[in-house]
Amino acid sequence: MNNEIAISDAPAEGRAIDLASHAVQLLVVCAVALVGNWVATNVSPLEALPGMACLYAMTIVGLVIAKYMPFYLPSVAWISLVAIIATIPGVPGAAFVNEAVGKLNFLAMATPALAYAGLALTKNEFAIARKSGWKIVIVAICVMFGTYIGSVVIADLVLRITG
Amino acid sequence: MATSRGGAIGPALVLHLAVLAIVVVSEIIGLIRVPIGIGAVILLPILYAFALGIIFNPNVLKATGRVLNHDATKLAGTMITIAIMPFIARFGTTVGPQIEKIIAAGPALILQELGNLGTILIAFPVAVFLLRMGREAIGASYSIDREPNLALIADKYGLNSPEGAGAMGVYATGTLIGTFVFALMPPLVHGLGIFDVRALAMSCGVGSGSMLAACTGGLVAAVPDQKDLILALAAASNILTYATGLYAGLFLALPLTEWLYRTCAPADRASTMH
After folding, report:
1. Contact A158 B238 (CB under 8 A)
2. CB contact under 8 A, B186 and A122
3. Which of A78, A96, A121, B214 is the most exposed place for a label (fewest CB within 10 A)?
4. Looking at CA atoms only, how far is residue A45 from chain B in angstroms?
5. Cα–Cα distances in angstroms (integers) from residue B272 to residues B128, B137, B158, B161, B170, in the given order
């Protein structure tokens, strides 16, 4: 059995980011997301375009940083940091960015990724899930619940103490 | 091997159009709220998109194999990581305007990262004592088994080991049902009325984009008036997980799970899966 498949290229991305092809694929994703946002919120693609352009620019900047930083962090971490800094009040342009991205429903931005994810599932992934059997399904649900509720309990306790 | 990117325009076009169609249908259906006893089950467009993607996946529906060929589904795999990026950027933009509240919640945000070890508390005993699993239990229960965690297991044990099989099993299962679990869970936990909504929000950052989307989507639907704060806290916590997850797994979660297994699992228990 070929076990390589499921890891995809996410952990190994680091230095190997192909900026040109990412830039083109991102354009496609942004176009799909604009249409999805239109259906979800009734905000026309034209009206939402400046916000999408901001997201596009932040993503590219994040990818460039991830490519050239001497230490490894996932590119999504850099993209988040760029987006946070660009929207902190007082940072030049922050008011414009906030106003512009406000036209984009946050959940509608994730819908294309899930559609790709459903279509990308390989024969192997179905096979592994089937072969692992019901025990793994139970463990997986416990893992997700445990990971979530563990954080909830600690966060809640600390918030009670610190107010 | 590099042809799947630039080479063929046809399969790529078919793929993107299929995704566009799925997205439009999913957004038209929109959010559905099903009230039950202690809370509500929240159904989100991202869930329909994933489900529709699976239905039309050529491995499931043979008929679509003629238009969605191998190149198209392989490209789809690449596109997941690309497509989640604008979402992550949009999520990051919710943090800036709330930066003061984020800093105020700083200690809770940082300490709740340790709560991700809660999987060991709950899943490990279930795997070892209830389901009587062997060393698969280590890979399966030490973390949420997304890509960085899987890479760690692959590096340490190899994916063909029992530990690797356990991790791969939870990875594949999480890929299939994780979005659903994370959309349903937070509104139900919120329904208990015990926990601060900020705690529920910051726990959504478990290091997976789709789980983050499902978790916050569900929570915002349950507590709409706290939307901005929920998004900002979840985004901040997700960044922390990106930065710390691999190291927490390497230095805390995996050694702890190994030690637990050596200490309390019966010595003669071999591989028990299927």
Report:
1. no
2. no
3. A96
4. 13
5. 10, 10, 18, 13, 15
Q: Tokens for B213, please give them.
A: 């989307």
pLDDT digits (tens, 9 = 90+) for B202-258: 999 987 888 999 999 999 999 999 999 999 999 999 888 887 777 888 889 999 999
Q: Determine the length of chain B.
A: 274
B213 pairs with which residues across the strands? none
Decide if A155 and B115 are in contact by the 8 Å CB cutoff. yes
HEC readout, B6-24: HCCHHHHHHHHHHHHHHHH
* Selection from B221, B210, B138, B135 nearest residue B179 by Cα: B210
Calpha distance A120→B249 (Å, rounded) = 27
Alpha carbons within 13 A on the beta-carbon side of B48: 18
**pLDDT tens across B54-95, in order?**
999 998 888 888 888 888 888 998 998 899 899 999 989 998
Note the pLDDT tens digit of each residue in B98-124. 888 888 889 999 999 899 899 999 999
Q: Are B206 and A155 in contact (CB under 8 A)?
A: no
C-alpha to C-alpha distance for B177 and B167, rounded to whole angstroms: 15
DSSP A131-142: HHHHHHHHHHHH
- Per-residue burial over B162-188, b = 16 or more CB atoms within 10 Å of its CB, e = otherwise: bbbbbbbbbbbbbbbbbbbbbbbbbbb
Residues of B whose CB is below 8 A from A156: 194-196, 199
Whole-number Å distance between alpha carbons of A94 and A88: 6
Here the ipTM equals 0.87
- Residue A83 one-letter amino acid: A
Question: Rounded to an integer, what distance in angstroms lies between the CA atom of residue B54 and that of residue B13?
Answer: 19
